[in-house]
C-alpha cells in the first residue's frame, strides 16, 4: 500500500526537524517548509534518501566545507541557497 502524499509530506517534515544536530534541524526544517509541497514524487524520493545521510556530512555539504555527492548536488545547492539567503 502506498503512503498518502499528505502523510508523506508530514513524515518528511518531521524528519527534517528532528535531526542529530541543531544546525541541521534549523536548516532542513526551513527548507522543508518552503519546498516540500512543490516537490513531485521523484523529488520527494530523493529528499527522503537525503534525510538518511549523516548530519555531519550533510552540514559539511550544505555549508560548502566538502563537495556533495553527484546525485545530491543540485538539492544540496538548493538547501544551501535557502539556508544562507539573506
Automatic annotation (TrEMBL):
Record flagged with keyword rRNA-binding: no
Segments crossing the lipid bilayer: none
Protein name according to UniProt: FAD assembly factor SdhE
SUPFAM superfamilies: YgfY-like
This protein's UniProt keywords: Chaperone
Family: Belongs to the SdhE FAD assembly factor family.
Pfam families with a match to the protein in the record: Sdh5
